[in-house]
């Protein structure tokens, strides 16, 4: 290779390096960037929901008075006017190979209750509150990562809770929900983020 070719190759390498330097920069893990990432995450994923995705909800009458989740929680939601109850009969295939007709109490969302059923993408859920960011408390590299491309953010939150979350019976029937509602401004939650060319994106959602 003569000197002219060497100079041409070196010039191309230098130009490539210069162009690379002008490209998108990897976002740093700092307060500003992670605060923006948390705000974007909570804007779409900040609903505090109760895991009741399919309606109506049928509670077999044989479960009445038991501590099964729906047997405890659905009468409470009826008490605060979010669902209505009616008697129904359904085919039960769980007890034996031959379907049998059983009596159930069928709970359906009232017009008031429908206000709290939120659809996100293809999945809906019955939700009690929405969280927004209070502040980012800290962040650290994920222990299972070899570099700083993934971090765990610790944060506190503000909450916009439905009025019925203050009912004493609701608080007893949904203790985790009550804990999160009461923890606004003090409880610390965590969220994983992965670094990309366009910013920090949440993981595990």
Fold topology:
Layout lengths: L2 H19 L9 H15 L1 E3 L7 E4 L8 H11 L3 E10 L7 E10 L1 H4 L2 E4 L2 E19 L8 E12 L6 H6 L1 H8 L6 E8 L2 E4 L3
Antiparallel strand pairs: 1-6, 2-4, 3-4, 5-6, 6-7, 7-8, 8-9
Q: Shape, please?
A: elongated
Helix content: 25-40%
Strand content: 35-45%
Distance between the termini: 54 Å
Question: What's the main sheet like?
Answer: 6 strands, antiparallel
Figure out the total of helices.
Answer: 6
Q: How do the helices and strands follow one another from N- to C-terminus?
A: HHEEHEEHEEEHHEE
Mean pLDDT: 87
Total domain modules:
2
Find the structural class using helix and strand composition. Answer: alpha+beta
Low-confidence stretches: 5-23
Q: Please provide the count of β strands.
A: 9
The radius of gyration computed from the alpha-carbon positions, rounded to a whole number of angstroms, is 26 Å
Structure description:
It is a single chain. The chain has six helices and nine strands; from the N terminus they run H-H-E-E-H-E-E-H-E-E-E-H-H-E-E. With 205 residues, it is α+β, with helices and mostly antiparallel strands. Strands 1, 5, 6, 7, 8 and 9 form a six-stranded antiparallel sheet that branches. Strands 2-4-3 form a three-stranded antiparallel sheet. A hairpin with an 8-residue loop joins strand 6 (123-141) and strand 7. The chain is elongated and about 65 Å long. The model is unreliable at 5-23 (pLDDT under 50).
């Amino acid at each position: 290779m003569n000197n002219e070719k060497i100079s041409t190759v070196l010039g191309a390498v230098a130009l490539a390096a210069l162009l690379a330097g002008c490209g998108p920069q990897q976002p740093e893990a700092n307060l500003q960037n992670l605060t923006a990432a948390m705000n974007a995450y909570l804007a779409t994923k900040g609903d505090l929901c109760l895991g009741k995705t399919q309606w109506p909800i049928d509670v077999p009458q044989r479960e009445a008075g038991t501590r099964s989740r729906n047997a405890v929680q659905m009468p409470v939601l009826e008490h605060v006017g979010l669902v209505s109850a009616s008697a129904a009969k359904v085919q039960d295939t769980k007890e034996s190979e031959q379907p049998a007709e059983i009596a159930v109490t069928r709970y359906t969302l009232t017009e008031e209750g429908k206000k709290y059923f939120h659809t996100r993408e293809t999945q809906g859920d019955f939700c009690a509150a929405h969280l927004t960011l209070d502040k980012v408390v800290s962040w650290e590299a994920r222990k299972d990562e070899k570099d700083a491309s993934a971090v765990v953010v610790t944060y506190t939150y503000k909450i916009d809770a439905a009025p019925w979350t203050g009912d004493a019976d609701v608080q007893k029937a949904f203790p985790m929900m009550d804990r999160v509602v009461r923890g606004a401004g003090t409880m610390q939650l965590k969220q994983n983020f992965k670094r990309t060319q366009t910013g920090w994106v949440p993981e595990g959602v």
